[in-house]
Specification:
- The complex is a heterodimer.
- By secondary structure, chain A is an all-alpha fold.
- Chain A has 14 helices and two strands.
- In chain A, a hairpin with a 5-residue loop joins strand 1 and strand 2.
- By secondary structure, chain B is mostly helical.
- Helix content of chain B is 81%, strand content 0%.
- Classes of the chains: A mainly alpha, B mainly alpha.
C-alpha cells in the first residue's frame, strides 16, 4: 500500500516544483556557473572578450593591493556594523520578549515597519539630518555651538551609520525570536537556586539566546558586506565597498570578465561565512523569524 | 527593598534604551515626511511653513509618474508569478515525500543567501551571452528569483499547520486533486499566500540593487529614479516622493494584514 502510494505520487511533486526549479536553475544556478567560466576569459583592448582560460583577472583580483584594501575595508565596515547592531539590538529584543502581551504586539508591529519602508528612503534620510543644511547643523548653529556647518557626512562613519540603521531590525527580530522561545521557568529556577538577576541572565538567558544572536549577526554581516547602495549614498569617494567595484567593473567599465571574477570572489568569501555558520548553528535558525 | 528598587530601575533603564533605539529607527524617516511638507524652496531646515507644493510638483513630473507606474506593474507581476511558483513548490515540499528533498529546499531558498549584487551580475552576463537584450519581462524574472524564497518560507510554514485529514476527506468523497486544492487547501492557506504576495510586492517595489543592473535603458522604477535624483543633491521633491513611498509601503501591508485577518475570521 505504502509502495503504491509512493508510486502514485512519483511524478506529481516534481511537476508541482518544476516552475520554481526551472526558474532557480535558469536564473541563478546556470548564471552563477556561467560567471565562473566568464571570469577566466579576457577583455581585449577593443572591448570584446577573448574566450579561453586566462588567469589574468584572478591574479589581478587576488594580488592587486587596491582590491585587497577595499576587501579589508568592506569586511571591517560589515563587522563593525554587525557588532553595533548587537550592542544596540539586544536590549530592545529583551524588552520586547519580556514585556506584557499588549505592548509586545505593538512593539513587534513597529519593528516590522522598517522592513516595509524603502531602503533607499531610509538611507537618504540621513542626508536630511547630517547634511550641511541638515537638522543637526541647523540646530547646532542655532544654539551657537558652532559658527559654520560641520561636514560630518560622506565618510566611513556615516556608511556604518546607514548600515546599522538598515540592519538593526533584522538583528532585533532574530534575537527576539530566540529570547521568546526560552522557558521563563528556567530563569525562575536559577533565581530560586540563589542566582542574582544578573547571574541568571548570564548563566541561563544569554547562552540560550545565542542561536538568535548568531542568526542575526550572519544576516547583518552578509547583507552589510554585499551592499553598494549605502556607500554610494552616504560614503565619500574613498569609502567604496567590494560590491561597488563589481558595479563599477560591469556598469561603468563594461569589463565583464573582471566583474565576474570580482563578484565570484565576493560570493566565495560570503559563502564561506554562511558555510561556517551552517556548520555551527544551522541554517534552520534563520527560518524561525518567518513564523 | 533595595533589591526591588534595583530591579525597577534596571527595567526602566532597559525601557529607556528601547525607546531610544526605536527613535533611532523612526526619527530619520519622520524627518523625511516632515520636510516633504516644507514650504522652503531648498527643502532644508528651518521649516518655513506647511505646503503641499512638492506633492503637486511630483504629480506634474512626468518621469516620476512613469517610474511609479512601472514600479506598480513590476511589483504586481512579480508578486503573482512568485506566489504561483511558491505555492506549487510548497505543496510538493510539504505534502510529498521524495528523494533529494533537503537539497531542493536548500536550492529554492538559496537566492536569499547569495548576495544580490552577485545574483545581478550572474543573470546579466548570462543574458548577454544568450544575446538577449535587457527587457521588462527579464527584469521581472530577476525580481521573481529573490522574492520566491520568502513566499516559499511563509507558505510552507502555514501549510505544515494545515492537517492532511481535511484533504483526505475531500479526496475520499470523490473530489479530484485539483478540486481538493481549490476548495479545501487553498482557502486554508490563503492568509499565508496573501502575506507572501504582499511581501513579494514590497520587496520588488523597494529593490534597487538588482534593478540598477537589470533595467533596460530608459526604464526607471521609483527607487532607481530616487537614486538618480540623489546624484545631484537632496531636493524637497525627493522628500515628497519618499513620503509617498513610505505611505504606500506601510499602508499596503497594513491593509493586507487587516484583509487577511478578516479572511481568517470568515473561515472560522
Amino acid at each position: 500500500m505504502a509502495a503504491s502510494d509512493a508510486d502514485r505520487s512519483g511524478a506529481r511533486p516534481w511537476l508541482l516544483m518544476s516552475p520554481a526549479l526551472v526558474a532557480v536553475a535558469l536564473l541563478l544556478a546556470v548564471p552563477v556557473c556561467f560567471i565562473a567560466v566568464y571570469s577566466f576569459w579576457l577583455r581585449t583592448a577593443v572591448g570584446t572578450e577573448q574566450v579561453g582560460f586566462y588567469l589574468d583577472n584572478w591574479i589581478e583580483v587576488l594580488t592587486d593591493p587596491f582590491y585587497r584594501d577595499i576587501l579589508i575595508q568592506t569586511l571591517r565596515i560589515a563587522a563593525v556594523s554587525t557588532v553595533l547592531c548587537i550592542l544596540l539590538g539586544y536590549v530592545p529584543a529583551y524588552f520586547i520578549a519580556r514585556s506584557a502581551t499588549r505592548y509586545k504586539t505593538l512593539l513587534i508591529l513597529l519593528l516590522m515597519l522598517p522592513f516595509w519602508i524603502s531602503y533607499i528612503i531610509r538611507t537618504m534620510s540621513w542626508i536630511n539630518i547630517l547634511g550641511v543644511s541638515g537638522a543637526l547643523n541647523v540646530f547646532l548653529l542655532w544654539l551657537g555651538v558652532i559658527s559654520k556647518p560641520l561636514e560630518i557626512l560622506y565618510n566611513e562613519g556615516t556608511v556604518v551609520l546607514g548600515l546599522v540603521h538598515f540592519l538593526l531590525p533584522f538583528m532585533i527580530l532574530n534575537i527576539y525570536v530566540s529570547l521568546d522561545g526560552i522557558d521563563v521557568n528556567l530563569v525562575d529556577a536559577a533565581r530560586s537556586l540563589g542566582c542574582t538577576g544578573w547571574q541568571a541572565f548570564l548563566e541561563v538567558t544569554l547562552p540560550l539566546s545565542l542561536p538568535g544572536l548568531a542568526a542575526g549577526s550572519l544576516l547583518c554581516f552578509v547583507l552589510g558586506a554585499g551592499t553598494y547602495i549605502t556607500p554610494m549614498i552616504l560614503g565619500g569617494p574613498r569609502d567604496a565597498m567590494f560590491a561597488n567595484l563589481v558595479f563599477d567593473a560591469i556598469i561603468t567599465q563594461l569589463d565583464w570578465p573582471l566583474g565576474s571574477a570580482l563578484s565570484l570572489a565576493l560570493l566565495v568569501i560570503l559563502g564561506s561565512v554562511v558555510l561556517v555558520y551552517n556548520r555551527f548553528v544551522g541554517i534552520g535558525q534563520l527560518a524561525k523569524s518567518f513564523r | 527593598m533595595t533589591g526591588l528598587r534595583r530591579i525597577v530601575t534596571g527595567w526602566s533603564l532597559i525601557r529607556a534604551f528601547t525607546v531610544l533605539v526605536y527613535l533611532f529607527m523612526f526619527l530619520p524617516v519622520a524627518v523625511v515626511v516632515l520636510l516633504a511638507f516644507n514650504a522652503n524652496q531648498f527643502g532644508s531646515f528651518p521649516m518655513e511653513g506647511i505646503s503641499i507644493r512638492w506633492f503637486v510638483e511630483l504629480w506634474n513630473n512626468e518621469a516620476i509618474v512613469r517610474a511609479f507606474k512601472t514600479s506598480m506593474l513590476l511589483g504586481s507581476l512579480t508578486a503573482l508569478v512568485s506566489a504561483t511558483m511558491g505555492v506549487l513548490a510548497s505543496l510538493a515540499l510539504v505534502r510529498y515525500d521524495f528523494r533529494g528533498k533537503g537539497l531542493i529546499t536548500t536550492a529554492l531558498v538559496a537566492p536569499i543567501l547569495v548576495p544580490e549584487v552577485v545574483l545581478a551580475v550572474a543573470l546579466l552576463l548570462f543574458l548577454r551571452w544568450l544575446e538577449m537584450p535587457k527587457s521588462f519581462p527579464l527584469l521581472m524574472l530577476g525580481h521573481v528569483i529573490f522574492t520566491l524564497p520568502f513566499v516559499l518560507l511563509i507558505v510552507q510554514a502555514r501549510l505544515v499547520a494545515v492537517r492532511r485529514e481535511y484533504e483526505e476527506a475531500a479526496l475520499s468523497l470523490g473530489a479530484n486533486p485539483v478540486q481538493t486544492f481549490r476548495d479545501v487547501t487553498l482557502p486554508l492557506i490563503m492568509p499565508a499566500v496573501f502575506a507572501g504576495i504582499i511581501f513579494a510586492f514590497t520587496i520588488s517595489f523597494d529593490d534597487v540593487t538588482g534593478t540598477l543592473f537589470w533595467k533596460p535603458g530608459g526604464v526607471e522604477t521609483v527607487p532607481t529614479q530616487i537614486f538618480a535624483m540623489l546624484r545631484n543633491s537632496i531636493s524637497p521633491e525627493i522628500n515628497a516622493l519618499g513620503a509617498v513611498m513610505v505611505v504606500i509601503t506601510v499602508a499596503v501591508p497594513l491593509l493586507g494584514a487587516a484583509l487577511a485577518r478578516r479572511m481568517a475570521a470568515a473561515l472560522r
